[in-house]
Write a structure and sequence with these properties.
The complex is a heterotrimer. By secondary structure, chain A is mostly helical. Chain A is built from 13 helices and no strands. In chain A, helix 4 packs across helix 6. Chain A is flat and about 75 Å long. Chain C has one domain: MetI-like fold (Orthogonal Bundle), CATH 1.10.3720.10. In chain C, helix 1 packs across helix 13 and helix 7 packs antiparallel against helix 10. The chains are: A mainly alpha, B alpha/beta, C mainly alpha. Chain B: It comes from Jiangella asiatica.
């Protein structure tokens, strides 16, 4: 270092300069992004602040004030007032829904991508189109049909309608993935005497597993966050999943802001947790959703 | 009613008529348990309902309570009335909506109950519970009153006295405003029914109950001179409303009222439900008289029970209705729900009621006529048009002519459908 | 619901190996002609569930839209009367107009913000992960929860007005959800807030797939950052743009929960969308025939956009 050539010194100076520019840029970047992100998180932060305040504190100092009280009692109250039960209902609906959607979707995708089913492109397009229908179009008849088959007001009804509504989409996306699996792979198995089911179950499914993981993350938030279908096929308060429960909960606790926001936070927590734990799958799920 | 009612959706209601499907619901056909469907979600009321059901079961009945949000309930009601397996008894209210269901043969005939257990009830209640085919189709069990509520401590602090005439009332508002407090508050945000109460009362005081009911039936016009006169008076109080009234639902408006930020709230006695703790400080006065020549009418919404015509076991259902109508059951509900409603039965014990409730009863006792409320005297659909007209008036009082013309235009197809 | 819709379109499929041509050339040759029974069962399971619970109800709705029906008695066939009354229905017109505003605002707002965020957070840096996570966190909230959070924000004494007061902008304070002139915008902010993260994720993936050499070359040529972005990067994002457009349009047209939970369409219909109006007609007013007709309008609009985007994306592929 002591005897560095001018050229080398130049280089170091240059590098130091570059590093300084870099650091300056980084400061500028954070100075810009930190406030924006904070602003972005503000609704969640305020909800958190409000949920830990006492009602007296909120009423006397306003919703926008900083807390002077701290208590987690609102969460207990919200949980016991039905939010806990509703979350459980949502889980009971979401888990089988996701499995069914992916199972049926992958089966149909397998059929359409590996075999000469007549009109397969049309079938695929029509199945996708079903998923693009605005749910409002279907509410009234679906609800009546559920009544006539005796499924109305059961969580099973919800699982069925979620699955039916989602399956077209998952078929479409998985079809795209399965087409990219080289024909030789399945052909070799066929020649070895494997039947269609074996090829599907032993070869195809393992190959598209990463796609299934991403789609599962996506499917679970859809099923979990649903409002409109639960209102259409469930009538008993104790069977309502989380969104439908929050709707009556928030009108019931309209003036107890701390409990209402605590309930909203509890309702958001499961998907937020799933999201942070499975962030990668999530992002890939969203991309698949869009890209295919 | 309030809040995010979306629940309505539930509605999914959907009747069972038509092509898609045949009959409905096979679920619980084996069981003989009666279902009592309720929309009373607040803890006191639902607790009182549960107590009634428990008592009924203790005495050998078999019933269970199902409580859903009010919007959900309303949306599902038509479905249930036409379904093969409806809830057996439903909490509902008396008035035009119930009578229309009766006219269309959707409700269980409970005339026998009226001939026996309810034979001592006043004619006004009997008439209210009778459809156009002269059948009783409703069992009223409690009612409440409306008034201008205020807090005694706030009035003392303001040095205010209770007004009886409209002029006194406007003067009082002005004085309160001069002291830096909002004289009035209402819940004109989502589902602005407290605002519609202003229309009801002004119309009752200016044009009388007969005109009011006929108007809601479509026999007068919303853009006629009588209704215009109502809005002329309405305009006089607009400056006195707490500015946040426009954002608040009815319970939210209670917070500033309880805090002493607003002095008076035109509300039903159900305000005691929501008002925390210091009910003793709460008082009310009669909505001021505008024209002494008009017979005095008050709003006295009546609640009770109805049953679908197609219940599985009409005798068991009538038995449950009879129990719910008993003096004992009426008192249990009124007392435990803390809603300041009072039993309809003339023989029920009312010695337990508070001074406030007694005062409310006296108010109704001397009234020349009673009405139910805008929606109960017309339909939910027509009330939607009232929401639009009244809340738009609150924001643009200068446009009153256009607002009333639009109101009339929106109401006409509704009246047509109902007469069809 | 964000993206059920999503599906729609385009191409930049990182996972797909032989994406290039959907044409016959790429189709595997040795597929057998005979379709085994198992495969038919596979297809029938999925197709059957969807046919029974989606297509059949959809057809019923089309029928109901031609009837007058209050849910109490059987529907009565009235031909196109529901559609002609729609033409005279002021609230329907308001809802239609609001839907157009909503569509434009939702698409423009979430695309511009999402793209800006993606560009800002594209380069790996310390802290970028945290920023990204916080910005797409709202996406996992249900629209209902989103509505609840923002209803708190917009209370007359709530955080938004408190913040405005704290920074000296009292004159900007509003009754956000009670003022007919701004309520739609206020709700739009909540909806965009939730959607931006989604759009950002799509653009981040798109940016990753762009060729950095092109931008470097442009830099050497002395192009400004804006020019580089607009003339070099943007054209490479065309595929993503189509996807984003399709998603936001479809999501915008089916918006319901967030408006319903925040305003219910009020005050006096000023935030009414077709979906909320349809809902009210069906479930408050029991006008099930009329509400089915509105549902059909929503469907036709959605279909129009889907066809438009699909055709464009196919055209681009060729």
């Amino acid at each position: 270092m002591t005897t560095s050539s001018p050229a080398l010194r130049d280089h170091t100076v240059h590098r130091r300069h570059r590093r300084r520019v870099e650091r300056l840029r980084a400061v500028r970047f954070h100075a810009l992004m930190a406030p924006i992100t904070l602003l972005w998180a503000a609704p969640v932060l305020f909800a958190l602040l409000i949920s830990v305040r006492s009602l007296d504190d909120i009423v006397s100092r306003g919703l926008g004030a900083l807390p002077t009280s701290f208590s987690l009692a609102s969460f207990t109250e919200a949980w016991n007032a039905g939010v806990g039960r509703a979350l459980l209902n949502s889980v009971v609906v979401t888990a089988p829904t996701v499995v069914l959607e992916l199972l049926l979707g992958s089966m149909a995708a397998f059929a359409l991508s590996r075999y000469h089913v007549p009109l397969r492109r049309l079938i695929l397009a029509v199945m996708l189109a079903g998923n693009l229908l605005p749910p409002q179009v279907l509410l009234v008849p679906v609800s009546r049909m559920m009544q006539s088959v005796g499924l109305y007001d059961s969580l099973l009804a919800l699982i069925v309608v979620h699955t039916a509504f989602g399956v077209g989409f998952f078929t479409f996306v998985l079809h795209g993935f399965m087409r990219t699996v080289p024909e030789e792979v399945t052909e070799a198995a066929r020649i070895d005497g494997a039947g269609a089911f074996t090829i599907y179950w032993r070869i195809m499914l393992p190959l598209v597993r990463p796609a299934l993981a991403g789609l599962a993350a996506l499917a679970s938030t859809w099923a979990f966050n649903d409002l409109i279908w639960s209102l259409a096929v469930i009538r008993s308060g104790e069977l309502f999943p989380i969104s439908a429960t929050m709707l009556s909960f928030s009108s019931q606790y309209l003036t107890s802001w701390n409990v209402a926001t605590a309930g909203a936070i509890l309702a958001a927590l499961p998907t937020a947790l799933v999201f942070f734990v499975f962030q990668k799958q999530f992002v890939s799920g969203m991309l698949m959703g869009s890209v295919k | 009613m309030q809040g995010l009612g979306a629940a309505g959706l539930a509605a999914a209601g959907l009747g069972t008529a038509g092509c898609v499907t045949g009959g409905s619901g096979s679920e619980s056909s084996g069981s003989s348990t009666l279902t009592l469907q309720s929309s009373l979600v607040d803890p006191n009321s639902s607790g009182a309902m549960q107590k009634l059901v428990d008592l009924y079961n203790e005495r050998g009945g078999e019933a269970s309570l199902n409580t859903v949000a009010a919007d959900t309930f309303n949306a599902q009601l038509p479905t249930y009335l036409d379904s093969d397996n409806p809830p057996d008894v439903m909490v509902y209210f008396a008035g035009a909506i119930t009578q229309r269901y009766g006219d269309r043969d959707k409700l269980l005939d409970v005339s026998q109950l009226w001939a026996d257990e309810l034979s001592e009830y006043p004619d006004s209640l009997r008439e209210l519970s009778t459809d156009s085919k002269d059948r009783q189709i409703f069992v009223p069990t409690n009612y409440y009153w409306w008034g201008v509520f205020y807090r005694r401590s706030v009035f003392d602090q303001l040095g205010a006295t209770v007004p009886t005439t409209w002029t006194d009332y406007l003067t009082l508002c002005e004085e309160i405003q001069a002291q830096g407090m909002a004289p009035l508050i209402t819940g004109a945000g989502r589902d602005p029914w407290p605002l519609v109460a202003w229309f009801d009362y002004l119309n009752l005081r200016i044009n009388g109950a007969e005109f009011h009911r006929a108007l809601l039936r479509g026999e007068h016009r919303f853009d006629g001179p009588e209704v215009k006169a109502v809005f002329t008076e309405f305009a006089k109080v607009l400056p006195y409303f707490h500015p946040s009234s426009r954002s608040y639902a009815y319970q939210e408006a209670i917070t500033p009222f309880a805090q002493g930020d607003a002095a008076m709230y035109l509300m039903g006695a159900l305000i005691t439900d929501v008002l925390p703790d210091d009910v003793d400080d709460l008082d009310f006065f009669q909505f001021p008289i505008l024209d002494p020549g008009v017979p005095v009418a008050e709003e006295a919404p009546t609640n009770g029970y109805l049953a679908p015509a197609r219940v599985r076991d009409p005798d068991a259902t009538r038995d449950l209705l009879g129990f719910l109508a008993s003096d004992e059951a009426q008192v249990i509900y009124c007392r435990d729900s803390q809603s300041s409603s009072v039993p309809t039965s003339p023989t029920a014990d009312t010695s337990w009621t508070s001074e406030l409730v007694q005062k409310g009863l006296d108010l109704l006792g001397v009234a020349d006529d009673l009405t139910q409320f805008f929606n109960r005297d017309s339909s939910e659909e027509l009330q939607q048009t009232a929401y639009t007209a009244c809340s738009r008036f609150l924001a643009e009082p200068g446009n009153v002519d256009a607002i009333l013309a639009e109101w009339q235009a929106a109401a006409e197809p509704i009246w047509q459908d109902q007469s069809a | 619901m964000t993206s059920r819709s999503s599906s729609a379109v385009a191409e930049p499929a990182p996972a797909a190996a032989d994406r290039r041509a959907p044409g016959p050339a790429a189709r595997p040759r040795r597929r057998r002609g005979r379709v085994p029974g198992t495969v038919w069962v596979f297809l029938l399971l999925a197709g059957g569930v969807e046919a029974i619970w989606i297509f059949w109800p959809a057809l019923s709705t089309f029928y109901f839209s031609l009837t007058s029906w209050d849910g109490l008695d059987a529907p009565r066939f009235i031909g196109l009367e529901n559609f002609t009354s729609m033409a005279r229905d002021d609230v329907f017109h308001t809802a239609l107009r609001n839907n157009a505003v909503w569509l434009a605002g939702f698409a423009v707002g979430s695309v511009i913000l999402g793209l800006a965020m993606a560009v800002a957070l594209d380069r790996p840096r310390r802290g970028v992960g945290v920023y990204r996570a916080l910005i797409y966190l709202p996406m996992v909230f249900s629209l209902l929860v989103t509505g609840l959070f923002w209803r708190v924000m917009y209370q007359p004494e709530g955080p938004v007005n408190a913040i405005l007061a704290a920074i000296g902008l009292e004159s900007w304070q509003r009754q956000w959800l009670a003022d007919p002139d701004i309520v739609l915008l206020a709700v739009l902010v909540a909806a965009v807030w939730r959607q931006v993260g989604y759009v950002m994720v799509l653009y981040l993936a798109g940016l990753k797939a762009t060729d950095p050499a092109l931008a470097d070359a442009a830099r050497v040529d002395g192009c400004s950052a804006w020019q580089r972005f607009w003339h070099v990067t943007m054209p490479q994002l065309r595929g993503v743009n189509t996807v984003v457009a399709a998603i936001t349009v479809i999501d915008a047209l089916r918006t319901f929960d967030v408006v319903w939970s925040m305003t219910g369409g009020g005050p006096y219909n000023s935030s009414e969308l077709l979906s909320t109006y349809m809902f009210r007609q069906a479930f408050t007013n029991q006008a099930l025939g009329y509400s089915s007709a509105i549902a059909v309008v929503i469907f036709v609009l959605t279909l129009g956009f889907i066809v438009f985007f699909l055709r464009r994306s196919f055209a681009e592929q060729k």
